[in-house]
Amino acid sequence: MNTLIFLAQGAPASPPNAFVQLLPMVVLLAAMYFLLFAPQRKKQKEHQKLLTEIKVGDKVITNAGIFGAITSVKEDRFVLQIADNTKIEIAKPSIQGRSDS
Question: Which of these, 24, 32, 55, 58, is most buried using a 10 Å CB contact count?
Answer without folding.
Answer: 58
